[in-house]
Design brief:
By secondary structure, the chain is an alpha+beta fold. Helices cover 32% and strands 19% of the residues.
Length: 336
């Protein structure tokens, strides 16, 4: 999977050495959605199809501990205009840009970083700043204005006075509402299958990308390992790890949008047999000797066709022992 000058390599180069996986394994409700190494590899392949080697350019940007190739950073900024929808490629790119700000800003200062941005054409400046302010776009108008004022106070050159999110930028739209879905994951006490549930708890019909519908794959789930102590508390948490297998790294057909009426629910079951090899593989990825004895599952469901909003949920911690043997070959079942 490793590629020369890959985006994954570039991302790891600019992440704190103590927890490199944090750059890839984002939390259950990240601003740009859950992203994995496969997503960054797909972005790199996408950029090459567009005639731009984004991985190589990132490598040029970070050419020393305190040395940045400003021309390369400018070219990376200008590549932002190639995106026409806020899909996974755009979100992976946005995450890389945010990481570059955090790392370059810490070493050389925020004014240094924004100086390079301010030399770009106005549409590029708008696009990059829209990426930075995107997490605030889902807030109600008053909260969004307060958040913008706070960010401007902290980073006046990044979000300058008079900045307007999505001004003249068709990639983004303002959102004034918060999603009102409830997501739950429970374990069948007998079979140890994991049951997934999403309910529209709002008074209005709402749509979501139906990852529950067949052939929605179980690797849309993530897991996190822990060590449960005698008092029931869980510590020594691992990073969140996607339940991928090597054979899963092939394109899947786009999933449909489904509409749930108020109070309507959608359910699915991921069988223990399907989870067993995936949990084993995730343990190999974790590469830890923490003595994990429990696991929980996490799911983020896209709420629109651009995958720009997510509803997230997580299960309780379940004993890890029941996932130690394969005894069937059942598949995932979905119901609505």
């Amino acid at each position: 999977m490793a590629l020369r000058c890959s985006l994954l390599t570039a991302l790891l180069l600019v992440t704190a050495a103590a927890r490199p996986a944090q750059a890839i394994q984002v939390g259950p409700d990240p601003p740009f959605g859950p992203l994995t190494d496969a997503d960054y590899q797909h972005l790199e392949e996408f950029s090459k199809r567009k005639g731009f080697d984004l991985g190589a350019e990132w490598t040029r940007v970070y050419r020393g501990d305190k040395e940045i190739d400003e021309a390369a950073l400018g070219r990376v900024f200008r590549f932002s205009l190639v995106f026409t929808t806020f899909n996974k490629d755009a979100r992976a790119y946005a995450q890389l840009v945010v990481n570059s700000f955090l790392n370059i800003g810490e070493v050389l200062g925020v004014p240094y970083y924004t100086k390079v941005l301010d030399r770009q054409p106005p549409p590029v400046q708008q696009r990059i700043r829209d990426f930075f302010f995107y997490p605030g776009a889902a807030m109600p108008e008053q909260e969004r204005e307060e958040a913008q004022a706070e960010v401007h106070k902290m980073y006046p050159t990044l979000i300058p006075a008079g900045f307007q999110f999505a001004r003249g930028d068709s990639l983004f739209t303002l959102r004034y509402d918060r999603p009102a879905f409830y997501i739950a994951m429970t374990q069948d006490a007998g079979t140890k299958d994991v049951r997934l549930l999403i309910v529209n708890v709002s008074p209005e019909p709402q749509s979501f990308v139906d990852s529950f519908a067949p052939p929605g794959p179980p690797f849309l789930l993530r897991c996190q390992f822990g060590k449960r102590g005698p008092d029931g508390s869980v510590s020594a948490l691992s990073d969140e790890i996607g339940l991928h297998l090597p054979k899963d790294r092939t394109p899947i057909q786009p999933l449909p949008l489904s509409l749930l009426a108020p109070g309507e629910k959608c359910e699915a079951v991921v069988t223990r047999a399907v989870l067993l090899p995936r949990i084993r593989h995730a343990l190999d990825v974790a590469r830890s000797n923490q003595g994990y004895n429990c696991v929980r599952f996490l799911l983020s469901v896209p709420l629109d066709d651009h995958e720009g909003r997510f509803a997230g949920g997580k299960s309780a911690f379940f004993d890890l022992a029941p996932y130690g043997e394969i005894d069937t070959t059942k598949d995932t079942k979905g119901t609505k």
